[in-house]
Design goal:
Layout: H1 9-20, H2 26-37, H3 48-59, H4 65-76
Length: 84
């Protein structure tokens, strides 16, 4: 368990804004919730399902910068293959 990544304060703030927004889609909110839950919790990793959603959020041209920041953070905290 050599990974000690966690969501930064800056990204956590962006994720909170995404969660509060009425115009943000469910996928972005799911990813933002995951990123926010990993603030101060380096032992947590992003699930396969959320990582898949985060990837789609990053590829969507309509997604806000705040949502993409949260998605990038969540995706970077996905446990890689062979590191179980």
């Amino acid at each position: 368990m050599g990974r000690l990544k966690q969501t930064s304060s800056k990204v956590a703030g962006k994720a909170a804004k995404v969660l509060k927004s009425n115009s943000t889609g469910a996928s972005s909110k799911k990813v933002a919730g995951s990123a926010l839950s990993q603030k101060g919790a380096p032992q947590k990793v992003t699930s396969k399902n959320v990582a898949s959603v985060a990837s789609k959020v990053l590829q969507d041209g309509r997604t806000s910068k705040a949502s993409k920041s949260a998605a990038g953070s969540a995706l970077s905290q996905r446990q890689g293959k062979g590191k179980k």
